[in-house]
Write a structure and sequence with these properties.
The complex is a heterodimer of chains A (233) and B (418). By secondary structure, chain A is of the alpha/beta class. Helix content of chain A is 36%, strand content 27%. Chain A has a single domain (32-47, 81-231), classed as Rossmann fold. In chain A, helix 3 packs parallel to helix 5, helix 4 (116-129) packs across helix 5 and helix 5 packs parallel to helix 6 (175-190). The radius of gyration of chain B is 33 Å and the shape is elongated. With 418 residues, chain B is α+β, with helices and mostly antiparallel strands. In chain B, strands 1, 2, 3, 4, 5, 6, 7, 8, 9, 10, 11 and 12 form a twelve-stranded mixed sheet that branches. Chain B folds into two domains: 2-57 and 284-416, no CATH class; 90-272, no CATH class. Chain B is 57% helix and 15% strand. Classes of the chains: A alpha/beta (233), B alpha+beta (418). The A-B interface holds A 50, 53, 55-56, 75-76, 79-80, 82-84, 88, 90, 94-96, 98, 107-108, 110-113, 116, 155 and B 2-3, 6-7, 10, 17, 324-325, 327-336, 338, 411-412, 415. The structure holds adenosine-5'-triphosphate (ATP) and magnesium ion (MG).
Chain lengths: 233, 418
């Protein structure tokens, strides 16, 4: 079992108001799975992703990642887990604007002390995986939206993480480019990566094997969509 | 630590980038650091240059000489001349000199001296068509040689019979001798001193230059002859040689007591004259350079403080501007200390750059002063090291607050920052 959450809660307090963004979520995800999370705006998808991605700690409940209980870890321990086990892909790409594609991809390796030569080698390899080896020296503003998201994907892959998390990775892309990116996710999944994506669109969600539907911070239902994809092919 | 070191190049590059994108802002920020460091380097260079020549000059006065003057030696800082009381003081006279010689057992020799300035353009000294460049003209007694350690290298010095007979003879400083007699032997030649005929009887030993100026542009005539020609005031400059170095204090006391008596100073009043030595001048000089150093420290501290606050400000702005970047780095696994060091290194790069610019600027200033004045400015390695370390430390110190703020940012909030 790669991911196991037990009655996970995330509660925010704004002034006198308390907002339960995630309310008692218990999910299990196996290694090598491809999962989509859907739900209306404000249903807690991003909050749940942040918990799974160790960017945030739950208010209550337990979270085990790769056999480690991360729900009680300190900031620096979480940073270590994020670096080693998790690759993030964001809706807004979140690349360093002044750095080249190569340097952006190198970034996670800087924080685990990889030597400079090794860093460049691995970053080039990751960029090759997303078919961008000819754009290494370009800065984000010299790349198209789709290319930027592929750089972000290469960055997520470069450390060979246990888990790739993508929060609306196609949200800022047109349909065709979005489909390209989803093909890439599909390929990475077939190569053995575990992927979780958040999306609004069912068209995107059905690339996955399983869909969790979230409403008001709770898992409303769960759907196996392997047959749809298979019949679509 | 390894991660932080890997980061060093990155952070320095990033700091350079920030500086280049905000050239004016960065320059104004590091201006304080620049001025602070330049002040240190420049002032140290000049003061050290001054030290060399000044100490040499004061020492050349002779370690063993006591001076008597009707005023305390003082440094004029700004305006403020002599007080009413000081201006009314009696002169130190030739007769005082004779009394000291006779009545102070610890004194070996007394040299009363007078110097003349011919209006309007200084002293005119000629030999045929040759002319010396406004030499100093002194009226002296034979003891001048012993007291001032200034003997004739050619010919002879002023003698007692010169004094008794008020002879028209003179001893030349090397510069005057060379100006008037470039190819000939000056001894026995007749020269014109402010239109009076004098026979050259000697040439004095060469004195070392001071602050790049030669100290040999003078001529000496017998004291009595001087008095006869230039009936100026009774006032004389008095240099006294004690019998031994150990006797300086005894001689000083005896002179002081004698002069109090001769000048009728009541026992409960302060001296209305001064008796001092080279050491005294040296102390005074040291206190001046001490003040210069103090001023320098104050200026550079203020400048560095202003610079430091500026750096803190620019770093806080930088942290805010790059909140998202910090979020990204944290999401990718940067720990608090990674972010902390990134911003500290940036701050240190900023102030270090200001420091290097300050060193260059200060050194240029020192060299410039050395070139246009006779001071020899020395750029000392320690001042460069101190200047640079200080500038970097300012960055470290004033970078702590912004860097801590950056390090503490919550990754999710930072990522969401627009
Ligand atoms: N830092 C926070 N402080 C207070 N409330 C928060 C915070 N973050 C999220 N929330 C609230 O938690 C709820 C879930 O937010 P979340 O961002 O997870 O929704 P989402 O499903 O990702 O929505 P969207 O599809 O619009 O991205 C929302 O009501 C939101 O207002
Ligand atoms: Mg969201």
């Amino acid at each position: 079992m790669l991911i196991k959450t037990v009655d996970l809660w995330k509660t925010y307090t704004v002034g006198t108001e308390t907002i339960h963004a995630v309310q008692g979520v218990s999910v299990e995800i196996e290694k090598g799975e491809y999962v989509a999370i859907m739900g209306p705006s404000g249903s807690g998808k991003s909050t749940l992703m942040n918990l799974i991605g160790c960017l945030d700690s739950p208010t209550r409940g337990e979270y085990h990642l790769n056999g480690r209980r991360v729900s009680a870890m300190s900031d620096d321990e979480l940073a270590y887990i994020r670096n080693k086990e998790i690759g993030f892909v964001f809706q807004t790409f979140n690349l360093l604007p002044r750095a080249s594609a190569l340097h952006n991809v190198e970034l996670p390796l800087i924080y685990n002390g990889t030597s400079s030569g090794e860093r460049i080698r691995k970053a080039k390899e990751a960029l090759k995986t997303v078919d961008l080896e000819d754009r290494m020296t370009h800065r984000p503003n010299e790349l198209s939206g789709g290319q930027r998201q592929r750089v972000a994907l290469a960055r997520a892959l470069v450390n060979n993480p246990a888990l790739i998390l993508a929060d609306e990775p196609t949200g800022n892309l047109d349909t065709a480019t979005g489909a390209e990116i989803m093909e890439l996710f599909g390929r990475l999944h077939r190569e053995g990566n575990t992927i979780i994506i958040v999306t609004h669109e069912r068209d995107i969600a059905i690339y996955a094997d399983r869909i969790f539907y979230l409403r008001d911070g709770k898992v409303e239902k769960e759907e196996d969509v392997r047959h749809i994809k298979n019949s679509g092919n | 630590m390894k991660v932080q070191l890997l980061h060093l190049k990155d952070s320095i590059q990033m700091a350079w980038f920030t500086m280049r994108t905000h050239k004016m802002r960065s320059f104004l920020t590091i201006l304080g650091v620049l001025v602070g460091v330049a002040a240190v380097i420049g002032m140290v260079a000049i003061v050290q240059g001054l030290n060399k020549s000044m100490a040499a000059q004061i020492e050349s006065l002779g370690a063993n000489v006591i001076y008597v003057s009707r005023f305390e030696p003082q440094v004029q800082v700004g305006g403020g001349g002599r007080s009413e009381e000081e201006r009314k003081r009696k002169y130190i006279t030739f007769e005082d000199a004779m009394a000291i010689k006779e009545l102070c057992p610890a004194v070996e020799a007394v040299s009363p001296e007078k110097y003349w300035w011919q209006e309007p353009d200084g002293n005119q000294v000629k030999y045929r068509d040759k002319e010396a460049r406004n030499p100093q003209l002194g009226g002296v007694v034979p003891e001048y040689a012993v007291v001032n350690n200034c003997f004739a290298s050619e010919g002879r010095f002023v003698t007692d019979s010169d004094i008794n007979f008020k002879t028209y003879v003179c001893v030349l400083g090397v510069d005057v001798a060379e100006a008037l007699f470039p190819h000939a032997d000056p001894i026995g030649k007749q020269i014109l001193v402010n239109n009076n005929r004098f026979i050259v009887v000697g040439v004095a030993e060469k004195k070392p230059a001071f602050l790049g100026y030669s100290q040999n542009n003078y001529l000496l005539i017998p004291f009595t002859t001087y008095r006869k020609i230039y009936s100026s005031s009774e006032s004389v400059w008095l240099a006294v040689k004690p019998k031994s170095k150990a006797g300086i204090e005894a001689a000083t006391d005896q002179i002081t007591q004698l002069l109090r008596l001769r000048r009728g100073v009541p026992y409960d009043k302060e001296n209305d004259f001064a008796v001092f030595t080279q050491d005294y001048l040296m102390d005074m000089y040291r206190s001046i350079t001490g003040v210069a150093y103090l001023v320098m420290i104050v200026i550079s501290s203020i400048a560095l403080l202003v610079g430091g606050v500026g750096v803190m400000n620019i770093m806080l702005v930088s942290v805010t501007e790059r909140t998202r970047e910090i979020g990204i780095r944290k999401a990718l696994g940067a720990k608090r200390r990674n972010i902390l060091w990134q911003f500290l290194i940036e701050a240190m790069t900023l102030t270090g750059t200001g420091g290097i610019m300050g060193i260059i600027f200060g050194a240029a200033l020192g060299i410039f002063v050395g070139a246009v004045t006779p001071l020899s400015a020395t750029i000392s390695l320690w001042s460069v090291i101190v200047g640079f370390s200080f500038s970097v430390s300012v960055g470290l110190f004033f970078g702590i607050y912004p860097a801590t703020r950056a390090a503490k940012l919550d990754p999710i909030e930072a990522l969401r920052y627009e």
